Amino acid sequence: MKKVLFGTMLLALVIAVPIPTMAGVDINVSIGLPPPIVFAAPPELIVLPDTYVYVVPDIEVDLFFWNGWWWRPWEGRWYRSHYYNRGWGYYNYVPSFYFDVDPGWRGYYRAYNWYGHRWNYERIPHQRVQQNWKSWQNNRHWERRGTWGVQSYKPRPQQQKQELRQQRQQQYQQRPEVQQHQQQQRQQKQRQPQVQQPQRSQPQGKPGRGGEEKQERK
Q1: Chain centre distance of CA 184
Q2: Three-class DSSP labels, 115-174
Q3: Whole-angstrom Cα Rg for the chain
Q4: HSE toward the beta carbon, residue 44, CA cutoff 13 A
Q5: Under DSSP, is residue 16 helix (H, G, I), strand (E, B) or coil?
Q6: How far, in Å, CA of 98 to CA of 28, rounded?
Q7: In this model, does residue 204 exceed pLDDT 70?
Q8: pLDDT value of residue 134
Q9: How many other CB atoms are there within 10 angstroms of residue 107's CB atom?
Q10: Of 6-10, 160-164, 183-187, the least confident
Q11: pTM, full prediction
């Protein structure tokens, strides 16, 4: 009888008192996937000047290939996949290549003109890009082949590239859909339970603030 009573009390204690390790469990929030892009045939790509970022120019949504992945933004969020038309997964960051992408590239593509210079871009089958992107990047393929097809092209100085990246990043952060997504992320973090940090014990024989300062200086 005593064993039954003890077991009942122990069960009630476990239910009533939260287990510390449970506080660190993440709350999974369902994130929608972007709508599919229908292709009649595998897409061709072009490489953007001064980058190793490849884009699909014949659709009205942004679809990039970079560093072995396909990338696409949607509603302020980013997704990536090993395939151009399926398998998208949420990516919780802005990929580093994106701020090297000139936002006016579509207009330059249609005009065959890159900042006042004739742009004889090459349309590349997607399979060829996937097979060769790494060796092209390692061997600086596009610099050696007529500077990305732009006549009389001169790469921007590094300082100017960095300034452009910062400017594009600021413009990106101001987009309404990006701000909305960031707000949702902040709300999600606020709803997550906080992990209680164990109190720091004072060193024996060195009580008070003075003891802590000596320990930090070691």
Answers
A1: 16
A2: CCEEECCCCEEHHHHHHHHHHHHHCCHHHHCCHHHECCCCCCCHHHHHHHHHHHHHHHHC
A3: 27
A4: 7
A5: helix
A6: 27
A7: no
A8: 97
A9: 10
A10: 6-10
A11: 0.73
Residues 6+ apart with CB under 8 A from 135: 141
Which residue is associated with the tokens 């339970």?
193
Dihedral Cα 147, 100, 62, 85, nearest 10 deg: 80
**Structural tokens at position 40:** 């009649």
Structure tokens at 97: 């290549």
- With beta carbons less than 8 A apart as the criterion, state whether 118 and 112 touch: yes
What residue has token string 């980013």? 78
Both structure tokens of 83: 């395939």
What is the widest separation between alpha-carbon atoms in the chain?
93
Q: Looking at residues 124-132, what average pLDDT do you find?
A: 96
User: Does residue 208 carry a pLDDT above 60?
Assistant: no
